[in-house]
Backbone:
């Protein structure tokens, strides 16, 4: 996979995404990476713009209640991401002078920041030549290098294979184009080498091993597909919608009306929201988003005052 070919393609086909603007801060790129996890770009664009305008630095988000951040998260899905990002903002404001550190290991110590996110921010915000591997990258490598329609299970081998493809100088060092190559590899998987209906006739990688072999069908273990309708995840979302639509607490009866198809499932979903810290029970057995209960305020005061 000649890096120059992919970089040339990227020069022409790179999407104009707002978080790719050179003036965007590492904090704003971190927000985009958290939002983009398991969420299409089209759904992230609007919320991302709203968030970076509302919370231009970590301390501005840290000053908000967790419930308000959850409310702003809206229907992006997997709301624990919002809760963890709020916790991350507090740590950045308190321990990092309101800045995202440029070191992968330091980022890994932040709440809600995993290996992929730390590497993505290091690469795209700070221009570090670290391999960045997501589902798109794994799929491109599986096809172009190994001749397989779909990759196997994620492993540490993925990072090594992505790193092997990065452009280097004649002396074996990373070239200055390495971070851009990582973005190009991801872009190819997102736009051309897609999971379904790949547009091989538009792909710049003419030496793709999968195409050379005649595009053989996947013959590995059954691939898991995620459904949504009727799942606990859907019910959790409906319950959160009720709480996001109000700035106060609500009685249990209002939550019960959000899902009447299966009371046991509704109770299970409600309990899981409590366990995850996304919602709280207030005085009088009412429910609210995290951090919006008067009891939470008193608990916080007890932690500050001996």
Residues:
């Amino acid at each position: 996979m000649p890096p120059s070919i992919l970089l040339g393609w990227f020069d022409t086909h790179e999407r104009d995404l707002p978080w790719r603007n050179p003036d965007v801060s590492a904090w704003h790129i971190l927000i985009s990476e958290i939002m983009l996890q398991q969420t299409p770009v089209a759904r992230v664009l609007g919320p991302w713009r709203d968030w970076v305008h509302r919370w231009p630095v970590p301390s501005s988000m840290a000053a908000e209640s967790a419930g308000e951040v959850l409310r702003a998260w809206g229907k992006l899905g997997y709301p624990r991401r919002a809760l963890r990002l709020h916790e991350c903002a507090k740590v950045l404001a308190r321990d990092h002078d309101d800045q995202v550190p440029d070191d992968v290991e330091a980022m890994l110590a932040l709440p809600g920041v995993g290996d992929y996110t730390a590497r993505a921010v290091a690469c795209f915000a700070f221009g570090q030549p670290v391999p960045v591997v997501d589902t798109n990258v794994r799929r491109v490598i599986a096809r172009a290098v190994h001749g397989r329609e779909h990759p196997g299970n994620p492993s540490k081998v993925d990072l090594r294979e992505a790193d092997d493809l990065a452009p280097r100088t004649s002396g074996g060092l990373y070239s200055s184009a390495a971070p851009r190559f990582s973005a190009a590899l991801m872009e190819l998987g997102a736009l051309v080498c897609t999971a379904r209906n790949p547009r091989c006739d538009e792909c710049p990688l003419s030496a793709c091993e999968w195409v050379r072999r005649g595009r053989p069908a996947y013959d590995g273990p059954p691939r898991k597909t995620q459904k949504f309708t009727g799942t606990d995840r859907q019910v959790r979302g409906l319950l959160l919608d009720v709480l996001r639509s109000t700035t106060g607490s609500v009685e249990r009866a209002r939550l019960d009306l959000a899902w009447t198809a299966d009371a046991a499932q509704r109770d299970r979903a409600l309990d899981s929201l409590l366990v995850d810290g996304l919602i709280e029970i207030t005085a009088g057995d009412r429910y609210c988003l995290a951090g919006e209960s008067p009891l939470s305020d008193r608990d916080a005061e007890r932690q500050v005052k001996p």
About this structure: The longest strand covers residues 279-281. The two ends are 62 Å apart (CA to CA). The first helix runs from residue 3 to 13. Residues 297-306 have pLDDT under 50 and may be disordered.
